[in-house]
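Hi support team,

I submitted a single chain yesterday and got back a structure, but I'm not sure I'm reading the C-alpha cell output correctly. Could someone confirm the output below corresponds to the sequence I sent? I've pasted both exactly as they appear in my results page.

Thanks,
R.
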Amino acid sequence: MGTAELAAAGAPRGSAAMSPLLYYALPTLGSYVMLSIFFLRRPRLLHKPRAPAFRPRLGAHRGGSGERLENTMEALENSMAQRADLMELDCQLTRDGVVVVSHDENLYRQSGVNRDVGTLEFEELPLYKKELEIYFSPGHFAHGSDRRMVSLEDVFRRFPRTPMSVEVKGDNEKLIQKIASLVRHYDRNEITIWASEKNSVMKKCKAANPEMPFSFTMKRGFWLLLLYYLGLLPFIPIPEKFFMCFLPTIINRTYFPFSSPVLNQLAAAVSKWLIMRKSLIQHLEQRGVQVIFWCLNEESDFEAAYNLGATGVITDYPTALRRYLDNRVS
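Hi R., thanks for writing in. Yes, this is the structure output for that exact sequence:
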C-alpha cells in the first residue's frame, strides 16, 4: 500500500477520534461564553456591590492647572468654586520631611530652578514660573497671581472634606509613610485615594494605610483588560475601588505618549478598541469600581466619557466641565 493509501486509510480514524472531543468541547465553550456574558451584565449575583463613600463627577487635574498655576492654593480654590468633587494631586518630599504637592521631582519645568524637591527644605522651594504650559493642552499656558508651592497638610487643612487622589510616582518609603500618617491625622481615610502607576509602590501604599481606597496600577489595568476579553472578569474579585484611565480619544490630539506620530495613531486605535467598551465600564460600575477618565479638556471628550457610563472626568478646566455638567442635567 502506498503513502497516499495509508494516509487515506488513517483519515477516518482521526476524524472519528476528533468527533467526541468536538462534541463535548463546543457545548462546554458555548456554555462558558453564555455564563460569562450573563454575569458580566449581572455582576451583583456573584459580588456584593460596595457603597462608595463619594462619587466624583468633576475632578481637577493638578488642582485645575488649565485655569490657574498648577497645584497652587489659588488653583484649588478656583476648582472648588466650580464645585469640583475630586482633586487630583501628586506629591514629593522635601529634605526636611514636608510632603509637598508637586507633579515633578525636579523643579526646572515648574520654576526654572534645576533642583530636586528632595534636595531643598520646604522654605527654600522656589516660586512657580509666571506661566506654565498645560500638558494636556499643548501650546496653551496657565497664569495666576499665586506662585507658591503648598504642602499636602495645608491642603488637607483648607479642604478637610474634599476627596483627593494622591499619586506617588517614586518608590519613596518615607513619603508614603508621611502621606499615610497625614491622612489618618486629618481623618481622611475614606476620601483620599492611593494612586500609582507601579505595583511595587502601590503595595507599600496599601501596607502604610490599608483603610484608604486605591486605584488600578498600570499592570493591574492590563490584567483587568485581559480578564475581560477572556471572559473571566465576572468571576474574579476586584479589590480596587477606582479605575482611573486616560480616554483613548485624546491620544494624538491632546496627549502624545510617543514621539512618533505613527505610534500615536496606532496607540489611539488599539487603546480605543480595547478600553472604550460600555459593557466593561458598566460591569465595573455595578461592582462598585468607579471609572474616572483623564485628562479631558474638550466637550466632545466629556461627552464620550459620560456616554460610556463613567462616574467622572478629570480635567485641567473645571469651569468648562462644570458648564457641561450643568447643561447636561438641565
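A quick pointer for reading it: The radius of gyration is 24 Å. Let us know if anything else looks off.

Best,
Support desk
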